[in-house]
Every structure is written in structure tokens, then in C-alpha cells.
Specification:
There is one protein chain. The protein is an alpha/beta fold and 182 residues long. The chain has a single domain, classed as P-loop containing nucleotide triphosphate hydrolases (Rossmann fold, 3-Layer(aba) Sandwich). Helices cover 55% and strands 12% of the residues. It has helices spanning 14-25, 32-36, 46-59, 73-81, 92-106, 124-147, 160-180, and strands at residues 3-7, 29-31, 63-66, 84-88, 153-157. Strands 2-3-1-4-5 form a five-stranded parallel beta sheet, with helices on both faces. The mean pLDDT is 89.
Length: 182
Amino acid sequence: MNRVMILGPSGTGKTTLARRLGKLCQIKELHLDQIYWLKDWQSMEKDVFDKTMKEYFKSHPRWVIDGNYTNNEHFYDRLKLADTIILLNYSTSDALKGVIERKDKYKHTHRSDMAEGCNEELDQEFLQYIAFFNKRKSKFLRAIVHQYKQKDRIHIFHNRCELNAWLEDLEEEKKCSSILSK
């Protein structure tokens, strides 16, 4: 795994997974929310965002990137460049639970994967985005991921238990290969 793309609804643990894989594979992770959102919830211009990502790809041969941003040109660049695509295809209730847990943990503060001034809040608009994500975006993400099924590593997880079992296997595999290489 050298170029990992992580997709899925808000609250499913994309950022946590990126951190864990980054550490496991010794690759610096990139959180798209941290790039796109500027201070105090101001968003980056779409063309600047695309240009920033294209420059990132040129200067970083290895990466773990979490975030969807499907309406940007670099979404398709990430798909083409990724050697591993992970889709967290969790239920709406799992996503909402994750967002509520995150809000309780970071309420009125900013997370390390967000820009300064982007304090964790939960409003009606964001809750609706999550509530309708599976109806509006999940089908699209599954179809897109299916188009890249020729890649060696496509992983679709339906819940945290499936993901954690895979991560445990991956960590064990990493330990074994490290022992064998000595």
C-alpha cells in the first residue's frame, strides 16, 4: 500500500483510519478537510483546491488521503493514482452515531484534522447531509469504486467490526513480514 484513498460518510472514521494506516505503513496522511476548510469555515476555491492537490500528488509518491470531495477534478486523479481504495459503506445510524460521539469529544474546539477556527459543531444542515448521504452519495461511490475493481486492493467495509478485523490482520501481517525480513 503506497497510495490509499479512503471514502465514506462523515462520522465513519475515515480520519482515524487514515492515521492508523499512515502509522502502520509509515506514510504521512492527508486529511482533505484540513486542506479545503480555511480558518473559520471559509472554503478554498475549487480551482485552488484542485491545483493544490495536483501539486501534492507530484511531490508525494506515497500517501493516505481521507475525504470524498467527489465534485472536484482531483477526485478522479485520486482514483486513478490510488493502489488501494477503501470505502466505509456504513449505515446512516452508524454515521450519525460517529458524528455525535465526535461532537461530544471535540465540542467547541477544533480537531487536529481541521483548520483553526473550524470548531466542532453539529447543526441541522450537517445532520441532514449525513442522514441523506446513503441515498444521495453512497450508490455513486459504490459504482465508482466498482469501476476500479481491477486494482489489487479494493476494500468495502459495512461496519466497524469488519474494518477492525481487517486492520488486525494487516497489523499481524506487517509484524510477520518485519520479523521475516530480519
